């Protein structure tokens, strides 16, 4: 990994995210590599949508647009994972995965890791800020979106 | 219990389970038989239980992408005439009741006369569910989860259960009670993989976390084996060896955008039964209070909490009071639950062992037999899309 002062949250070796063969999610993954968070929004009925789909689930328009939004949200749920289910995670110890809702984007939700102490107390409803993690040296290259407390962010 | 209105579209009372069969149950990877042979053994055991010539089977129904192909089974068994071959969409155990419903629907619609419903699993041959390896790149739903270490089933479901606990104040003890009840029942079931291995609260609490809020004992086992049942139309129900168990109702599916990825289902803190439970009760013409015994699929105990609440046995806010061991064990509990030991302690046959236990309860032949045994419920894999459920009843319910 390069282009970031921080090591990856999880070790290399986990499956690498790529767009589907039909390209549906390509703008999302390309956006992350440019520090941009893109989600779908329907220009006809203003419905937000994530994960992506070929049409708006509300009005069935096929003209759904990718819209850049601020990577901030609040913790909707969380888990602390202890049991490794992949060779790359053996001996890694516990890690945190959070489900973050984005109230300013139709309350869509996305999963990421919560940076900081994996044993920290996690409170549902806490505001969090997005942090891009770049794997520019990976083949294929990709980027992830993690989350951190506002307060932690201020200290950094 | 209500009579059937004329022209009503229903399965109620029109199909009977007349045979049940299982192989021995093994820890994962320990079956010396390959998966296809296990399927054949379970089907023949179900035919033998019914007193049925296996060549009379004319339909096959399964779920969760079962690998034992219906055409190959029919050829191997010498099936004289193959009629219906149905596979329920969706992975995991969400289809364990839907597979029964699909078979029953085939019979009611006149597409088939004698259908076997089955599940076969040899994880030694095909790899375990709890481990993920050998995958280079991922797309679609998995791309939004796996790079963040959300790979295996416990990781995929723990956040859903955590949110439910948060919304309704459910405590860890409610989940513990479900695990204790399953292990309690397994101790009088010699078929159970966990027979002779009792569980108590200390052992539960001391067990390692898999993914909080799931301890080791909140998670199903992984096993090898196969299980099968034989369905025939009601008019033939009396032609076989055992007391028939009639289908009172079944439902399959999920609510509005339940399958929205990743974790974007509007009803996220849910086991996916908000639309299915009312549909099941409506078809069966009964209420929760009429149910004598419940087999509820436990991929994880937290899913059982949600599933039972969504079927109206208690309100979510009452989960801590209702889910105590005394209420959940046969024969005396208010709602005897997973009376064979289920996925946690009997055998993880993707919930098909739960269907078989429900039939045993209706027959009066369970090793943990409940006293009132006219109505038995099965709830399929929770938290997935589609899910499914099933009500079986004795002849007295018709
Ligand atoms: Zn729209």
UniProtKB/TrEMBL annotation, chain A:
SUPFAM superfamilies hit by this protein: Nucleic acid-binding proteins
Limits of the ChsH2 C-terminal OB-fold domain: 66-133
Gene3D superfamilies for this protein: 6.10.30.10
Positions in coiled-coil regions: none
Pfam families in the record: OB_ChsH2_C, zf-ChsH2
Domain ChsH2 rubredoxin-like zinc ribbon: 29-65
PANTHER family, alphabetized: BLR3430 PROTEIN
Name of the protein described by the UniProt record: Putative OB-fold protein
Organism whose genome encodes this protein: Bradyrhizobium daqingense
High-level lineage: Bacteria, Pseudomonadati, Pseudomonadota, Alphaproteobacteria, Hyphomicrobiales
TrEMBL record, chain B:
One example GO MF annotation: acetyl-CoA C-acyltransferase activity
Limits of the Thiolase C-terminal domain: 267-380
InterPro entries named in the record: Thiolase (IPR002155), Thiolase-like (IPR016039), Thiolase_C_2 (IPR055140)
Keyword line: Transferase
Top-level taxon of origin: Bacteria
Any Pfam family the entry gives: Thiolase_C_1
Name used for this protein in its record: Acetyl-CoA acetyltransferase
Lineage of origin: Bacteria, Pseudomonadati, Pseudomonadota, Alphaproteobacteria, Hyphomicrobiales
């Amino acid at each position: 990994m390069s282009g970031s002062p921080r090591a990856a949250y999880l070790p290399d070796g986990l499956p690498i995210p790529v767009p589907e063969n039909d390209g549906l999610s390509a703008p999302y993954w390309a956006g992350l590599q440019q520090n941009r968070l893109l989600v779908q929004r329907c220009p006809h009925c203003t419905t937000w949508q994530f994960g992506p789909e070929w049409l708006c689930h509300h009005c069935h328009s096929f003209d759904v647009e990718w819209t850049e939004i601020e990577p901030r949200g609040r913790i909707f749920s969380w888990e602390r994972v202890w049991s490794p289910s992949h060779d790359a995670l053996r001996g890694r110890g516990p890690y945190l995965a959070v489900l973050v809702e984005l109230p300013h984007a139709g309350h869509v939700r996305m999963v990421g890791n919560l940076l900081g102490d994996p044993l920290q107390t996690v409170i549902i409803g806490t505001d969090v800020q997005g942090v891009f993690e770049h794997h520019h040296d990976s083949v294929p290259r990709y980027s992830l979106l993690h989350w951190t407390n506002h307060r932690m962010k201020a200290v950094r | 219990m209500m009579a059937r209105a004329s022209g009503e579209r229903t399965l109620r009372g029109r199909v009977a389970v007349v045979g049940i069969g299982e192989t021995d149950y093994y820890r994962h990877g320990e079956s010396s038989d390959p998966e296809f042979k296990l399927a054949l053994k379970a089907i023949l055991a179900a035919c033998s239980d019914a007193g049925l010539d296996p060549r009379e089977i004319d339909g096959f129904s399964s779920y969760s992408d079962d690998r034992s192909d219906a055409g190959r089974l029919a050829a191997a068994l010498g099936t004289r005439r193959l009629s219906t071959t149905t596979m329920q969409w969706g992975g995991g155990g969400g289809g364990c009741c839907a597979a029964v419903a699909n078979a029953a629907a085939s019979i009611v619609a006149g597409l088939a006369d004698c259908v076997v419903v089955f599940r076969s699993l040899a994880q030694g041959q095909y790899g375990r569910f709890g481990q993920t390896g050998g995958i280079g790149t991922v797309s679609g739903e998995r791309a939004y989860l796996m790079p963040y270490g959300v790979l295996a089933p416990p990781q995929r479901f723990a956040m859903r259960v955590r949110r439910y606990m948060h919304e309704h104040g459910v405590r860890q003890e409610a989940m513990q009670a479900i695990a204790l009840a399953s292990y309690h029942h397994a101790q009088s079931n010699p078929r159970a993989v966990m027979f002779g291995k009792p569980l108590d609260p200390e052992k539960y609490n001391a067990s390692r976390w898999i993914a909080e809020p799931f301890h080791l004992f909140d998670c199903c086992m992984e096993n090898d084996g196969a299980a099968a049942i034989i369905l025939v139309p009601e008019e033939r129900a009396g032609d076989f060896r055992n007391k028939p168990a009639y289908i009172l109702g079944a439902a399959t599916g999920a609510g509005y955008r339940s399958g929205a990825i990743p974790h974007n289902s509007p009803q996220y803190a849910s086991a996916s039964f908000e639309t299915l439970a009312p549909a099941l009760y409506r078809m069966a013409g009964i209420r929760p209070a009429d149910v004598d015994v419940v087999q509820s699929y436990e991929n994880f105990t937290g899913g059982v909490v949600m599933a039972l609440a969504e079927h109206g046995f208690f309100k979510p806010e009452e989960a801590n009071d209702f889910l105590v061991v005394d209420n959940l064990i046969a024969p005396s509990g208010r709602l005897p639950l997973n009376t064979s030991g289920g996925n946690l302690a009997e055998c993880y046959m993707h919930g098909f062992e739960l269907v078989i236990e429900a039939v045993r309860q209706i027959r009066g032949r369970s090793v943990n037999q409940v006293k009132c045994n006219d109505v038995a419920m099965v709830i399929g894999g929770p938290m997935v899309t589609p899910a499914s459920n099933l009500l079986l009843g004795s002849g007295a319910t018709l």
